Amino acid sequence: MFHFCVVILLLYTARAEIFFEEVFNDDSWENNWVYSEHKGIEFGRFNLSHGEFWSDPESDKGIKTWQEARFYALSRKFKPFSNENKPFVLQFTVKHEQSIDCGGGYIKVFDCSLNQTDMHGDSPYLIMFGPDICGPGTKKVHVIINYKGKNHAIKKDIRCKDDIYTHLYTLIIRPDQTYEVLIDNEKVEYGQLEDDWDFLPPKKIKDPSKSKPEDWDDRPTISDPNDTKPENWDKPEHIPDPDASKPEDWEDEMDGEWEAPVIDNPEYKGVWKQKQIDNPNYKGPWEYPEIDNPEYMADPKLYAKEEICAVGFDLWQVKNGTIFDNILLTDDPEYAHENGHQIWKLRIEGEKKMKKEQDDLEKSKKETIANTDTEKVENDGDEEDDVQDNVLSDIEEHDEL
Ligand SMILES: *[C@@H]1O[C@H](CO)[C@@H](O)[C@H](O)[C@H]1NC(C)=O
Ligand SMILES: *[C@@H]1O[C@H](CO)[C@@H](O)[C@H](O)[C@H]1NC(C)=O
Ligand SMILES: *[C@@H]1O[C@H](CO)[C@@H](O)[C@H](O)[C@H]1NC(C)=O
Ligand SMILES: *[C@@H]1O[C@H](CO)[C@@H](O)[C@H](O)[C@H]1NC(C)=O
């Protein structure tokens, strides 16, 4: 099986051009990646780690955010390339093993103008892609693409994974101006670049030279002109109470002239209105004729980036512990698929197995303590068990696989 996979990979490699690949298996990354020293921010550090649970302790190593409540800004340059006339694939893995509450998990792609030591949130980028989580409200995959100097976010909502295991994120942009987003090698969104981002002005606009004709009747109903007010309709709304009578001890001189208190008139019928009938002249709502927008110009190179030169992580994280790994930039979606499958599938299975073992061990330790101690402590132990159970069910809930 192993051999078979390697052969397949080699076959793909023969066709695929790999522009950049980073697997973070040893300390050499420290020589190639550059931390930002942008003024005024003390950036967090990454550290090589396979995390708390893993499948293979060597190949599962990635760079892990190591400090709490920090901005991170780290990048690496490579030989520049253009994606003109070929597919572009951006792929990487993310593991939020800290049960992330608020923090970015995305990667940015830059051209060569990136000043790595000065990289910060406003450094211009070409593409920003990957998960972003903040509270229960924000759990999405960003796909932001810069077009002619302006960042455009995808108009579709793509939900990201929010569990504690490794996930594979893939963006494919093709020269036929289509795109795909995959999570764990499954297509979660796809379409036309032009449709799903506002890169270009709209194709059609309302004809500004046209306006609604004066005699265009767009009232669905009208008052019936033949409906006339009944003769005895008008009655006062209030009348003096006919049952009231002047009190015996009322003295006009002292109390003023007596007036009966006013009551609602039972014969009052309200304001008369003509009844509504269908308008015989109704023509329907006026619709502006649309014309081709003179500002619109199709761009067959919407997908193309002349110079792709660097990748970087520019993030904010509250709880540290996210592990990034397996960054791949290639022109071959099939190679990326196969490569991603081999990395990710085994890894998540191993992670889940080890995490379960760890949790089971933890649970049985707690049970042992609870069973051997005095009753008072036993109660405490049970409480802790409850907490542990909650944590477990929390994890299971988040586990969408
Ligand atoms: C990670 O960073 C911490 C603190 O900087 C350091 O003590 C530790 O040795 C590092 N671990 C690895 C694997 O580099
Ligand atoms: C980073 O996260 C780990 C848990 O993954 C935690 O033990 C550690 O204290 C954190 N480091 C800092 C500096 O907060
Ligand atoms: C990069 O930014 C740093 C810090 O602002 C600055 O000192 C340096 O001159 C910049 N380098 C280039 C090539 O612009
Ligand atoms: C009002 O009544 C006249 C005469 O009966 C009739 O010709 C006309 O169509 C009616 N108008 C409406 C709006 O129904």
From TrEMBL:
<comment type="function">
    <text>Molecular calcium-binding chaperone promoting folding, oligomeric assembly and quality control in the ER via the calreticulin/calnexin cycle. This lectin may interact transiently with almost all of the monoglucosylated glycoproteins that are synthesized in the ER.</text>
</comment>
<dbReference type="GO" id="GO:0005788">
    <property type="term" value="C:endoplasmic reticulum lumen"/>
</dbReference>
<dbReference type="GO" id="GO:0030246">
    <property type="term" value="F:carbohydrate binding"/>
</dbReference>
<keyword id="KW-0479">Metal-binding</keyword>
<feature type="binding site">
    <location>
        <position position="125"/>
    </location>
    <ligand>
        <name>an alpha-D-glucoside</name>
    </ligand>
</feature>
<dbReference type="GO" id="GO:0051082">
    <property type="term" value="F:unfolded protein binding"/>
</dbReference>
<keyword id="KW-0862">Zinc</keyword>
<dbReference type="Pfam" id="PF00262">
    <property type="entry name" value="Calreticulin"/>
</dbReference>
<feature type="compositionally biased region" description="Basic and acidic residues">
    <location>
        <begin position="204"/>
        <end position="248"/>
    </location>
</feature>
<keyword id="KW-0256">Endoplasmic reticulum</keyword>
<protein>
    <recommendedName>
        <fullName>Calreticulin</fullName>
    </recommendedName>
</protein>
<dbReference type="InterPro" id="IPR013320">
    <property type="entry name" value="ConA-like_dom_sf"/>
</dbReference>
<dbReference type="GO" id="GO:0006457">
    <property type="term" value="P:protein folding"/>
</dbReference>
<keyword id="KW-0732">Signal</keyword>
<keyword id="KW-0143">Chaperone</keyword>
<feature type="binding site">
    <location>
        <position position="132"/>
    </location>
    <ligand>
        <name>an alpha-D-glucoside</name>
    </ligand>
</feature>
<dbReference type="InterPro" id="IPR009033">
    <property type="entry name" value="Calreticulin/calnexin_P_dom_sf"/>
</dbReference>
<comment type="similarity">
    <text>Belongs to the calreticulin family.</text>
</comment>
<feature type="binding site">
    <location>
        <position position="108"/>
    </location>
    <ligand>
        <name>an alpha-D-glucoside</name>
    </ligand>
</feature>
<feature type="compositionally biased region" description="Acidic residues">
    <location>
        <begin position="380"/>
        <end position="401"/>
    </location>
</feature>
<feature type="compositionally biased region" description="Basic and acidic residues">
    <location>
        <begin position="355"/>
        <end position="379"/>
    </location>
</feature>
<dbReference type="GO" id="GO:0005789">
    <property type="term" value="C:endoplasmic reticulum membrane"/>
</dbReference>
<keyword id="KW-1015">Disulfide bond</keyword>
<feature type="signal peptide">
    <location>
        <begin position="1"/>
        <end position="16"/>
    </location>
</feature>
<keyword id="KW-0677">Repeat</keyword>
<dbReference type="InterPro" id="IPR001580">
    <property type="entry name" value="Calret/calnex"/>
</dbReference>
<feature type="disulfide bond">
    <location>
        <begin position="102"/>
        <end position="134"/>
    </location>
</feature>
<keyword id="KW-0106">Calcium</keyword>
<feature type="region of interest" description="Disordered">
    <location>
        <begin position="355"/>
        <end position="401"/>
    </location>
</feature>
<keyword id="KW-0430">Lectin</keyword>
<dbReference type="GO" id="GO:0036503">
    <property type="term" value="P:ERAD pathway"/>
</dbReference>
<dbReference type="GO" id="GO:0005509">
    <property type="term" value="F:calcium ion binding"/>
</dbReference>
<dbReference type="InterPro" id="IPR009169">
    <property type="entry name" value="Calreticulin"/>
</dbReference>
<feature type="region of interest" description="Disordered">
    <location>
        <begin position="201"/>
        <end position="254"/>
    </location>
</feature>
<dbReference type="InterPro" id="IPR018124">
    <property type="entry name" value="Calret/calnex_CS"/>
</dbReference>
<feature type="binding site">
    <location>
        <position position="106"/>
    </location>
    <ligand>
        <name>an alpha-D-glucoside</name>
    </ligand>
</feature>
<feature type="binding site">
    <location>
        <position position="314"/>
    </location>
    <ligand>
        <name>an alpha-D-glucoside</name>
    </ligand>
</feature>
